[in-house]
Structures are given as structure tokens and as C-alpha cells.
Specification:
Length: 356
């Protein structure tokens, strides 16, 4: 149950406890008559004090204490009722019949079914006192039934009202929590969208000058360097689009995107994958695939790409039939190595999830 619903129900418990204490001290105490009445009154007072230990701390009465307290309340009510002559029941001298029901509500407020059953049982005990001495006058019988059922109905209505308030509080708390979750999801979506815009803007920032140079003919598309720049920009955009896809193996998905674009340029590319997918931060995936894009752009006709995942180490390697030219060696988190093998070049980007 939510914190709001707990506090609402706790407040209802305290309200019923205080009302019961006022009724017992203010309305019942002056009507005590005899040892049996005082013993029953003391027993009810003790039950109320014990229940207050939990209720005043906004906690329900534990089930064992509530069960034992209910037995004491019903026994005390029985003693007080049987100490009265039958013709004085539910009259001015009958202080226990109505009071015991409030004690049962204090003890069993969190268990409506048991509380209702206890109230009915307590009312049955009251009417049982009339067995063998029931009034013969219909008016008296009607008055007794009306008074008894009025008390029971009022206490049952109080129990039902508290249940409705508690249920509404729970629904309101759940609605509030759902609004918070939606606001959180919206904030995350906006943050992700802003991040995507930033990355797209950065990528386009490198691409736009290239497009502008081609448009104003300051760059010659027949130039091999220009063609490589175009191929690299296209591969970077393709990998960037793949980065935003929701797939179970993001690294392989992005590597496949790079390979796919290389094959569209006419290269023959073989891709070998070993190991199970592992969680890799987005920034690390960019650094792992960045050298691969450079290698594929430098390839003339053939490339062999491999993705190796062993334990806490991830490797992305490529062998191409071409020269890679000037290349970067990684940022520190990812180690990048380039080697020339005759007319071929070999590249490997390596990342360890747990640095040595």
C-alpha cells in the first residue's frame, strides 16, 4: 500500500481511537454500577490503552493482539450486559452494548470482514440476554430492535466509510505514482531526443562542409580523397542510425551496418563473430566501430571483419586490401592498433570492461 493510503488509514485509526476514549470516559464512566461493571470497564480501558501503543504510532494493531483484545472486549461486554436486568438493556444504564463495538473497530479496522463479524457477534450477545425474558409488548420489542440495529448500523457504516476512504486514497496514490512515472519517462525521452539531436548535429556538422564543397565544386568527386570522405560520412551516418535501434546485440548491429554499406559500395566483406553479446557503453561502441569505418573506407575490393568477445574483453578487427593512411590510436578506453601487411592493412580495436 502506498504511503499516502497508509497515512489516511492511520489517521482513521487514530480518529476512531480518540472517539472511543471520549465515549468510554465521558459517557460510560458515570453510568458504572457495581463490581461487574467496574471490572468490565477496566478490561475495556486496558484493551484501549494497549491498542493505542500501535495506533498512535500510525500502525495497525497486530493480528495476535487484535484477536486477543477482541476476545477480552466480547467477554467484558458479556459480563456488563449480564449484570443488567433484561428490561434495562439498551437503555440509559446499558453503557457496554454500544461501547464494545467501538473497541472492536479500533482493534479490527484493518480487517473489515472480521470487524463486521465481531460487531454482529457482539449485537447477538446483547439480544441473547433477552432470551427467556423477552418483552411481550410489540412496542418494547420494536424499540429494542431499533436501538440495537441502529448502533450496529452506525458502527458498520463507519467501518464501510473508512474502507471507501482508504480505497480512494490508494487509487489517488496510484494515480499520482503513475503521473510521476509518466513524467519520468517523458523526461528520459526528452533527454534522449536532445542527445540524439546533439549527435546528429555533430555528425552533420562534419558532413555539411563536404556537401557544400561538392555543391560549389570546390571538391572534385573524381578525387580519391573526396570519394573516401563521402564514403566515410555515409558510413558514419549509417552507423549512427543503427545506434538508435533497439536490438539485443547493439555492437554487432552497428558493425553489420558498417559492413552493409561497404558491400553496397562493391566491396566483398566477410564477417566473423565469436562470443556472446555483452553490455557495452554507447561511447565505447562508437570508439570500437570508428576505426572499422576508416578501415572499410580504405579497402579497395575486399575486407575481412571479425568481432571477438571473450569474458571481459571485446575486440573488433579488420584486414583490408588497401592502405589506411593517417589513423588515430584510440582514446585510452579503447586501444587501437594499425599494421601494414604488404599491400594489406590490419586494424584492431580492443576494449576491456575491467581494466588491468
Amino acid at each position: 500500500m502506498s504511503e499516502i493510503a497508509d497515512r489516511v488509514l492511520g489517521g482513521c485509526r487514530i480518529a476512531v481511537l480518540l472517539a472511543t476514549a471520549v465515549i468510554q470516559a465521558g459517557l460510560s464512566l458515570p453510568r458504572l454500577d457495581g463490581t461487574a461493571d467496574r471490572s468490565a470497564f477496566t478490561a475495556l480501558a486496558v484493551v484501549l490503552v494497549v491498542a493505542a501503543w500501535w495506533v498512535l504510532r500510525w500502525k495497525p494493531v497486530p493480528w495476535p493482539a487484535a484477536l486477543a483484545g477482541s476476545v477480552v472486549v466480547l467477554a467484558a461486554s458479556t459480563v456488563a450486559i449480564w449484570s443488567l436486568p433484561p428490561d434495562r438493556l439498551l437503555g440509559d444504564d446499558d453503557w457496554a452494548s454500544g461501547l464494545a463495538g467501538w473497541h472492536l473497530l479500533v482493534l479490527l479496522l484493518d480487517r473489515p470482514a472480521f470487524a463486521m463479524g465481531a460487531l454482529v457477534l457482539q449485537t447477538t450477545i446483547t439480544f441473547s440476554r433477552q432470551l427467556g425474558s423477552a418483552p411481550t409488548d410489540r412496542g418494547e420489542i420494536g424499540s429494542l430492535v431499533i436501538v440495537g440495529l441502529s448502533v450496529l448500523t452506525f458502527q458498520a457504516a463507519t467501518l464501510a466509510l473508512i474502507g471507501v476512504v482508504d480505497r480512494r486514497a490508494g487509487e489517488a496514490a496510484e494515480a499520482s505514482a503513475e503521473r510521476d512515472r509518466q513524467a519520468h519517462r517523458k523526461a528520459l525521452a526528452e533527454e534522449r531526443e536532445a542527445d540524439q539531436r546533439s549527435r546528429f548535429a555533430g555528425q552533420l556538422g562534419a558532413t555539411l562542409p563536404l556537401l557544400a564543397g561538392l555543391a560549389d565544386r570546390t571538391l572534385d568527386p573524381r578525387d580519391e580523397t573526396v570519394r573516401r570522405r563521402c564514403a566515410l560520412a555515409a558510413t558514419q551516418l549509417r552507423r549512427l542510425f543503427a545506434e538508435n535501434d533497439d536490438v539485443p546485440d547493439p555492437l554487432l548491429h552497428e558493425v553489420s551496418a558498417c559492413v552493409d554499406l561497404a558491400e553496397r559500395r562493391g566491396l566483398t566483406v566477410t564477417l566473423a563473430v565469436s562470443g556472446e553479446p555483452a553490455p557495452i557503453p554507447t561511447g565505447v561502441r562508437r570508439e570500437l566501430t570508428g576505426p572499422l569505418m576508416t578501415a572499410l573506407v580504405a579497402a579497395r575490393s575486399r575486407a575481412r571483419v571479425s568481432v571477438l568477445r571473450t569474458g571481459d574483453e571485446i575486440r573488433v578487427a579488420a584486414i583490408i586490401d588497401g592502405e589506411s593512411g593517417a589513423v588515430a590510436n584510440g582514446s585510452g578506453a579503447v586501444d587501437v592498433e594499425w599494421h601494414a601487411l604488404g599491400e594489406r592493412s590490419w586494424m584492431e580495436a580492443k576494449w576491456r570492461s575491467r581494466p588491468n
